[in-house]
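protien #1 (seq + structre)
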Amino acid sequence: MIEQSRLVDALTEKDPNVNQLNVNDKRIFPIVGLGNPGLKYSRHRHNIGFMTLEALADELGATWGPVRHEAITCSVEYSKSKLILVKPQTFMNLSGKAVNRILSNTNIDYGSLIVIHDDLDINLGRVRIKVGGGDGGHKGIRSIADSLRFRDFIRVRLGVGRPPEGVAAETFVLNPFSLAEGPFVKRLIELGIEATKLIVTDGAERARNVINALKDLEMTGSETQ
């Protein structure tokens, strides 16, 4: 176990925009939103993890700091826990590089890591929670698992739907949502935030049961084509 001052320095480099951590009396949840940096990608399906994390930060009144450890981070207290919000700036397929730099020299339990990301296998508007398992072809998830050498972190899977026939998955996720999809995207972000907060307060299993029981607003594959 490393001492508290070293943990604070490793996560924040004494960034004045990030609150100090008290590891003695608060559980710490690193929460990573996946996406690609830059305005070019900001509204793409692949960036729904960024969008949801940014909305969560706004809701909780968190302030983002500058780029450090190849990520933009902020810290905020929520329900007797400390949340470390992380947006990797390495592009999707190297997300693990930034996450590893932030977490590898700390005593944070990797099992408390929550990763919010897009998922092609779930209809647009639906959210599912998963602990561990494979990456489902998602390069950001694969990069984190490989970099940490740990797969049993919590995933908040945000459904962005399947691509229309004849459209490659890589092309589909690197395009913005349509105007008609706007209400579903709004609901998706709201559910992603709710799922994340429930994981922090009630644990992944309870959060999964609650989210699965909701009557999700969803857009089916036929409606997106």
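ok now protien #2
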Amino acid sequence: MSALLLRMSGHAGSRRGATRRGAQPRAARAAWLVPALIVALLLAAGEMGFSALREVANVPIKQVTVNGDFRFLDKARVEEIMLPHLGTGYFMVDLAGIRDDLKQLPMVHEVTVRRAWPDRLMVFITEQVPVLRLGEDAYLNPYAEVFRPAAALPGLELPLVEGPAGSEKLLLDRFDAFAELLEPSGLRIARLALDGKHAWRITLDNGSELLLGRREVERKARIVSRLLAGEWAADRDRIERLDMRYSNGVAVAWKGEAPRAHRPEGTAAADPVPAARPPNQ
């Protein structure tokens, strides 16, 4: 009896061992099939996504919207630049190239170009704002940046500033400071010039000229404003030139005969007021 039991046990153990040996290859195959299936699915999804992306990229641009408040900008030139991009694929359109081309227009200050689904381009343009004329053919914007339109801008009567290359920021800052100092006199600056020796010259809107020199120019402008708003107010339009470059005085040249109240005894009508020392700039 005991021998039979032993043989049966041995046989059963043999079957169990066979079962374990057969299960191992099947489990290995199952473990390999899962990642392979995932890879196949990912490849199929990638192919489908690439095909869809290719289709979207080939959707042509059909409309361009240009936004901005324009006074001087040549809209026909903007349309001319944008026209070649109509029909370009949605993702193929060169946004940076469009922006660079538009910024070449003299009256364009800033440009933003965006895509708008499914077939539109949106262009946002900030036009240059001229605040001063610079030299013969240029303008300054509020940031002291120079721009040169193809022709003079119509309908503008802006003051003129002149100075050496690279002095644009200084010209704008000085113009603002002088304009504020002269405001009590009621006169405005028509022209502001900085020469090669760094001396300042102002022409007012009544034609009078102020020579301020190089030193303490804001203090001198304040003195001029006080004179023209006060004791010289009645005769200020008859002043041709005020030379403030003297250390302890001012020389005045009049248009025609000097008013008697301002004529020093013993001088001719057009003579300047004598100064104790020569101009010190």
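The domain at 132-262 is CATH 3.40.50.11690 (Rossmann fold).
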